[in-house]
TrEMBL record:
SUPFAM superfamilies linked: Jann2411-like
InterPro entries in UniProt: ABATE, ABATE_dom_sf, Znf_CGNR
Signal peptide: none
Protein's UniProt name: Gll4406 protein
Domain Zinc finger CGNR span(s) in chain numbering: 137-179
Source superkingdom: Bacteria
């Protein structure tokens, strides 16, 4: 499941193999342009230093809330307050639009398509995900070198790793650990 807020959270990538290397994709202007285009947020100019820092701070905020939710705990009240402030920073207006034979729908339109709007759209993506009530499906990859955030769409909600690469890597690590234990007699 592709989710706008998860792409932001996961923009701070760590090497899945445990080399210790990491990459902050927000510092790559080309990645940022692709990210904004992909999610229909490209109406803004390139961020200045303060706007980029706001994006980084939002990523940290969302990660803290995901960490709490994935651990089965409620998010800190201060974090929810901060999320609400981001949501409120971009005013919208309501508009009734015709959808052909299907009838009409209410559309929220941003008053201004600026960086507060981009942040609010990302925060709204996250808020909508939390509002679904499927909190146990919001997970963090159990590979300690990865920690990728993902939405578990499996039938029994038992997925432990973000993808097959991490799952295979962790199986190989467990196998090698068992082999070493057998060789040392432990």
């Amino acid at each position: 499941m592709d989710v706008l807020c998860f792409e932001l959270i996961n923009s701070e990538r760590h090497d899945h193999c445990g080399s210790g290397r990491s990459e902050d994709r927000l510092s790559d202007p080309d990645w940022l342009v692709r990210f904004l285009n992909r999610w229909g947020l490209a109406a803004v100019e390139a961020p200045d230093g303060g706007e980029l820092e706001s994006l980084v701070q939002l990523r940290h905020l969302l990660r803290r809330i995901v960490d709490a939710v994935a651990a089965g705990e409620p998010p800190a009240a201060a974090d929810l307050d901060a999320l609400n402030r981001v949501l409120q920073a971009a005013p919208t207006s309501r508009r009734l639009v015709c959808c052909g034979e299907e009838g009409y729908r209410l559309q929220l339109t941003p008053v201004c398509q600026d960086w507060p709007w981009v942040l609010a759209e990302i925060a709204a993506s996250f808020a909508e995900l939390l509002g679904t009530g499927n909190l146990r499906r919001i997970k963090i990859c159990e590979n300690p070198d990865c920690r990728w955030v993902f939405f578990d769409e499996s039938k029994c909600c038992g997925k432990r790793w973000c993808d097959d690469g991490c799952a295979n890597l962790m199986k190989v690590r467990r196998f090698r650990k068992r082999q070493r234990a057998e060789q040392t007699g432990a």
